[in-house]
Design a protein that fits this description.
55 residues; alpha+beta; 15% strand; flat; transmembrane helix; transmembrane; membrane
C-alpha cells in the first residue's frame, strides 16, 4: 500500500503544483519551475524518511 501511495504522490506532485500555482519564479537569474519545486519537496521527504518513518 505504501508503494502505491508514494507512487501516486511522486507522479502527480509536479502537475498539481503547475496547475494550482502556475509557478515560474526567478531567483538569482535562475527560473524555478514546478518540476524543480516538486523535486525539492520529494528530496526533503526522502531525506527525513529513514529518521521519521511514521510521518
Amino acid at each position: 500500500m505504501g508503494y502505491i501511495t508514494m507512487g501516486i504522490f511522486n507522479s502527480t506532485l509536479s502537475p498539481l503544483i503547475e496547475q494550482s500555482y502556475h509557478l515560474h519564479w526567478s531567483v538569482f537569474g535562475m527560473v524555478i519551475g514546478a518540476a524543480t519545486l516538486a523535486g525539492i519537496i520529494q528530496a526533503v521527504r526522502w531525506a527525513w524518511d529513514p529518521f521519521l518513518p511514521l510521518l
